[in-house]
Design a protein that fits this description.
The protein is globular and about 60 Å long. It folds into 2 domains: 17-270, 3-Layer(aba) Sandwich (Rossmann fold), CATH 3.40.50.720; 274-458, N-(1-d-carboxylethyl)-l-norvaline Dehydrogenase, domain 2. Helix content is 47%, strand content 11%. It is an alpha/beta fold and 460 residues long. The protein binds D-mannonic acid. GO terms for molecular function: mannitol-1-phosphate 5-dehydrogenase activity.
Length: 460
């Protein structure tokens, strides 16, 4: 079957394919970006006719995405799976893909390009190379290697080098990762990197780092998805991404200069993203992780299967209702109970096949963001975070039982878990991991005893 390309278009993208010039650099052009920011970008270009905001996507580690997209002129499709029949749409907002592993200098050059006004990022929690609690991890070997002056390979190094070489309009750097106050978090990393590298200048002063909250469930694409896309399109798309119908983007309205009309495409611009972000991280992402660990322990392959298990659905509901909601100040107009219900409905979408193992990945960097803030706030309020501790305990058991754990700290976690005999020892060994648990949590007797009870029950 022929390959999707400019000369082989089954349906016309909303924008003239190839008609956009590059105005956005996106670091981390994985499935999520292609199903989220790239879709908003395409709709904004369609609605406004503004052709300045095409995307230059950067793939950091492997060149696979570049190799999929280059023969397709950057075109790919989004396969949306909701309740009814799947629908498919070709997206034309990605104009080029750079592979940082092959040509790191090209990435810096693009960020420095005065026609580029915005850099967006989806590089996952671990891509920031931060210390637990924030700030740059200067012991990270890749950060150290970048600081010796090679063409930078870390995201923070790329941003700092790009800013240092830039002239013209100031840059907006927009983190779209699931982190608390992602904008200021990244601003601090770039500032600390620049200090360590001896980089400075106007562009650093003038750059803006707004915060943002992104939401869409985008499981890894499978061969079955690629086959279905081929049937629907009549041409082969090696870069198809799969997503649920739901899509949301809340952006702090604090750009350094001009911005794409993402709001015209449905993004919400606001002065304060924090209430949105907290609700999303503590409700959606926290229950997602809980269902991933509890679900995997019960042998479920997918999140949809896990949330159909009544015990697990109850645990997720309790987590939100009892532990999370009291810690939140909801944004105007958001009913947290209804939000919680809608989250579980989205997880139950049987067409998505989101693997528990995928959501379970990188727990050491996800837990602090999604769950441990809730634990801290509940303990500070004198409450026992029973349900939140269950999620953490499920992670502990998962760590101890999973061969080939997919986590940036896998070696440390698994050697801690391996030396522990019995529930209390497992809890103590993992609580001692100071890159995950803050000192006050490590020493909290209430939290420890909840964890021991839960681990005992889960391993019985
Ligand atoms: C998930 C998220 O893999 C994970 O950790 O919790 O990727 C989740 O699907 C998205 O944040 C939804 O917006």
């Amino acid at each position: 079957m022929n390959r999707l390309s400019l000369t082989n278009l089954p349906t016309k993208p909303a924008v003239e394919p190839g008609g956009l010039s590059v105005g956005i650099v996106h670091l981390g052009i994985g499935a999520f970006h292609r199903a989220h920011q790239a879709v908003f970008t395409e709709r904004a270009a369609q609605l406004t006719g503004d052709s300045r905001w095409g995307i230059s996507g950067v793939t950091q580690r492997s060149a696979a995405v570049r190799d999929q997209l280059a023969p397709q002129d950057g075109l790919y499709s989004v396969l949306t799976r909701g309740g009814g029949a799947a629908s498919i749409e070709v997206i034309g907002s990605v104009r080029e893909v750079l592979a940082a592993s092959e040509d790191p200098a090209a990435v810096v050059q693009r960020i420095a390009d005065p026609r580029v006004g915005v850099v967006t990022l989806t590089v996952t929690e671990k891509g920031y190379r931060a210390r637990s609690g924030g700030g740059l991890d200067l012991t990270d070997p890749e950060i150290q290697a970048d600081l010796t002056g090679r063409p930078p390979r870390t995201v923070v190094g790329q941003l700092a080098a790009g800013l240092a070489r830039r002239s013209g309009a100031p840059l907006t750097v927009l983190s779209c990762d699931n982190l608390v106050a992602n904008g200021p978090y990244l601003a601090r990393l770039v500032r600390e990197y620049a200090e360590a590298a001896g980089l400075a200048g106007e562009q650093f002063e003038a750059a803006a780092f707004p915060a943002s909250m992104v939401d869409r469930i985008v499981p890894a694409t499978t061969d079955a998805d690629r086959d279905e896309a081929a049937r629907l399109l009549g041409v082969r798309d090696e870069a198809v991404v799969v997503a649920e119908p739901f899509i949301q983007w809340v952006i702090e309205d604090a750009f350094a200069a001009e911005q794409p009309a993402w709001d015209a495409a449905g993004a919400v611009l606001t002065a304060d993203v924090a209430p949105w972000e907290q609700a999303k991280l503590r409700m959606l992402n926290a229950t997602h992780s809980m269902l991933a660990y509890l679900g995997a322990l019960r042998g479920y392959e997918t999140i949809a299967e896990a949330v159909r298990d009544e015990d697990l659905a109850t645990a997720a509901t309790e987590l939100m209702r009892v532990d999370v909601v009291p810690t939140l100040t909801p944004p105007d107009g958001l009913d947290l109970t209804a939000y919680g219900e809608s989250v579980l409905e989205r997880f139950a979408n049987p067409a998505l096949k989101h693997r528990t193992a995928q959501v379970a990945m990188d727990g050491s960097v996800k837990l602090p963001v999604r769950l441990l803030g809730t634990v801290q706030d509940r303990l500070a309020a004198g409450a026992e975070p029973y349900a939140a501790a269950l999620a953490v305990a499920a992670w502990m058991v998962y760590v101890s039982r999973t061969a080939g754990l997919d986590d940036p700290q896998a070696a440390r976690l698994q050697s801690a878990a391996a030396s522990a005999g019995g529930p209390a020892a497992l809890v103590d060994a993992l609580l001692a991991v100071d890159t995950v648990f803050a000192p006050n949590l490590r020493e909290n007797k209430t939290f420890r005893s909840l964890l021991v009870d839960h681990v005992t029950a889960l391993t019985r």
